[in-house]
Every structure is written in structure tokens, then in C-alpha cells.
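Deliverable D5.2: sample structural annotation.
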Amino acid sequence: MFFQRQMTSLPAIGALLCAVCVFGVAAPGAAESAEEVFVVTPSAVPDQKAVFATIESRRVVPGRTRIGGTVAAIAVKEGDHVDLGQVIATVGDDKLALQMKSLDAQIAGLEAQVAQAQIDLTRAEDLFQKGIAPKTRLDEARTASNVVTNAMRARTAERSVIQQQLTEGNVLAPAAGRVLKVPLTAGTVVLPGDPVALIAEQNFVMRLRVPERRVRLMKAGDPVRIDGDDPGLAAPRFGRISLVYPQIEDGRVVADATVEGLGDYFVNERIRVWIAAGDRTAFVIPARFITTRFGIDYVRIRNGANVDTDVPVQRGRPAPRQEMPDGVEILSGLRASDRLVQP
């Protein structure tokens, strides 16, 4: 009976294997996780060149003082993140406080004079209406009231100016970013316009400097690649050139490239970047389809009869892409339409 059950299960197992073989072939240039079949197709591979780039901010702006005086306090240090308009330091000037007290005293005296002038004006109007005082007396009282009132307004405006100068003692961050340098300490005497801190704007970029002979091969929108081991990342990162500067410096073309997740802490960090220097046709396959035995690289090719054969290949340099992070160029040993399976 046990033998009969096994005999009846063999056709079902055979049908299942046939179904897997029929439906397991992936589309050209892609791999399917169920069967892990990859069809080799030639593709355009950028001929990349390794250059060094530095992580920089687009602009480094100084936070400057607006009044002269003595630095009373510094609220930031190197490496701190600041927002636009945040107070980074306070500058005090004792003369402004003394001028404020003087104006407060003058305004208090003028307020008393305004009150007395208003009383004299009211009395002169009452006497003029009764025909006791002449009109010249009324005009003199009205003029005296206007003079004192305008004098109080002038002192009040001067006090507002001093108050604004005291407010301008707060040094504000001109942009959101990270503080790179604080050259002053509390107690330092500063003049209007002296820098208190250097702030690197957010959204850091990679600044490339490429020999000018490649200026015709580089343009905005070209892809760039960062090796994962350079900035301490687990996998390569991809980006694009955002700006090519029209001015050549010391025989080099300067360009900016944007890459997501670049970070914003270390400025002027040097990293290796791969840029495009033309296109060529090559075979690129995922690295998981390659096995190495005794120093020789092999891939497993499945023919039309579903027979797998190990074929030696010559491995080229890594060619990772966004859709194939583990891509490897194959120099020889493969042909177009070869079907690869994982060993």
C-alpha cells in the first residue's frame, strides 16, 4: 500500500516541476526571486572616472553685529544647528542704557509741561469766549501747547530709536544651518559689522573639481555615484550634477552634485566620487549569480532543455545601479539571451 501511495504522488510532483520550469523564466534584463532566473542583455554602461570631491555648503554666511559694544553672551558653539533668526549672541552698550534713562527723564518733564500747557490753553479759550482775554493771549497759549506736544513726540521718537538699537544688540542667525566657527568670546569689544559666527547653510552638496579637458563631457543632470565605504555608508549612493560653474579655477572645472542623505556635519570632507565619462555597451549582471572556486569565477547557465551548466567568466569592475545595487560587469564568457540561475 505504501508503494502505491508513492506511485500515485509521482505524477503530481512531475506536474508541479513542469509548471515551475514553464513559469519561472524572468523578463529580459531582470531577475525573479522565485526562480532567480536572469536573462543577459547588453546595456549601455557609463564609462566612469573616479574623482575626489569635498562636502561643502553652497554658501557660508557670517552672523554679524548690528551695533558696536561688548559681547555680553554667546549662545552657540561650533557644530550647533541654528534656525533662521535665532539669537546667537548678545552685544551690550552701556551708553545706550544711559541715553535711555536721560530720554525717560526728559519725557517725564515734557509730559508735565504738556499737561500745564493744556490747562493754560483751556483757560485762555474760556476767557476769550467771555471777552475778558484778547485773541493774542489765546494764540500764545495754543502755540505753547503745540510746541511742548511736538517736543514730547520728538523725545519719544528718540527713545524708540534707542530701544531699537538695544534690540539690535541681539545677533541673529542669517540662515538655517550649522555653526562652523565662533571667533569671539564673551567680553570682546566689537564694532558694527564684525562677524560673531560662521554658519554653513543646510542642504550640503558635493563640490567636484575636474580637469578642464573633461569640460565637454560633463553637464548638469549627469549621474554620480559614491562608494558605500567612503562616507561610512552600507551601500552606494547615487545623485546627479546640479550645477556646472562657468569659471575654470586653476585648470579645473567646478561642479556641484546633490545626493540624498549626504549629511551636514563634517564640512570639506573628501570622498571619492564616480562621474560619467562617456557610454559603452557591456553585460552587467547581479553579483549573486557569480560563484568563485579556486580563484575562477563561474556563472550557471540554463539551456533550452533546462540543463544547468557552470561556465567560467571574466569579472570586470563593479557597476552598481539604482535598480541593481550589486551589479558587476562581465568582460567575457557570456552571450546575449543567456539565462542565468543562482547556484
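Annotation notes: Residues 8 and 208 are 69 Å apart (CA to CA). Helices lie at 2-23, 94-130, 135-167.
The annotation will be released with the project's public dataset once the embargo ends.
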